[in-house]
């Protein structure tokens, strides 16, 4: 197949996400290995996006591919009410990466429905309705998840769900609280959250839903004590704390779960993406003992035809095992600390257009500004130009608003990381 043959089919018949359909000219991708993908005519790109920040283990990992093939031959599909060995193994493997005190895993088809079901659990456990989440967040594109989302994708008028309230999380570079230090930002953001809880009425709030590190919103590293403070507020007011690890979890930050670096334990953890790198669509909720026990005697009113799909389960077992035995999470941590962070710091000290760099592991952001002292975000047209220049240089970037997110697969090599960073550096030098 040529690129032209694919482009004659796909935009003609496929309705694409988050786009006006008319002028779309999507990149043709027909193969991939490790951190590289290529089109139908052999042009190769270094993937610094991991697609939608999900291909943590890289493309074509042989162990995961073989596990899916073997499972397809043995049993390609089976309903969720059955007992399936791979499903048990997948849940056990996921729980082994969670903090102490977690008991069970509920499997979904992706991240949005993981949040959806976590919210439903919290509502049943508390008998309350409201869900608090931050303005700078993305939680998925289903009824409650899209309304919990704080960014522009949240539909006007809350037509899909009720009871969602938003607050500002910490973001020192653009502080809502006039803070000048991380410590100040943390204390003041927690004070703001306490006031929102009090004003809404604690007895009406079922859940607080937060990404440990807001991802699409800008890889916003929480300041010291913030997440532990959120945990303390949830304890004080009897609120279920749901941590969304869909993007940040399973290796991305150089930890198994991003929350591992922040010393707090939520009640429910939602996951998807990195758990099997999207080789088969899957997500889920890791459920604490307390909430799991609540549903021992009460029916959980929720389920999905493909919950715990055997192909997804086999891919999770293989992916987590490969990530462990091949030191893939450790690689993400080391590359982040030794290669990505120093290169980004250098860009920040060299180019005025770089306002701030931040992140951990293979989860970093470069925030671009037109005026450093005013911190004015670089405009959309210039960002689009940057994106095209990176693509021209065969780098697949993740560009979001005024930021370049540096999010290659966790398996990226030192050489590839240096190569991609040099391309970004080069493009920034032309601005
Ligand atoms: C933090 C977070 N939560 C939830 C989702 C939704 O996941 P999915 O697209 O698999 O439904 C995303 C997707 O980008 C995400 O980044």
What does this structure look like?
- By secondary structure, this protein is an alpha/beta fold.
- The protein has two domains: 3-60 and 327-429, Aspartate Aminotransferase, domain 1, CATH 3.90.1150.10; 63-325, Type I PLP-dependent aspartate aminotransferase-like (Major domain) (Aspartate Aminotransferase, domain 2, 3-Layer(aba) Sandwich).
- It has 13 helices and 16 strands.
- The strands form three sheets. The protein has a seven-stranded mixed β-sheet, with helices on both faces. Strands 11, 12, 13, 15 and 16 form a five-stranded antiparallel β-sheet that branches.
- The longest helix is centred in the last third of the chain and has 23 residues, at 328-350.
- It is globular and about 60 Å long.
- The structure holds pyridoxal-5'-phosphate.
- Pyridoxal-5'-phosphate binds at residues 52, 110-112, 115, 138-140, 211, 215-216, 244, 246-247, 272, 283.
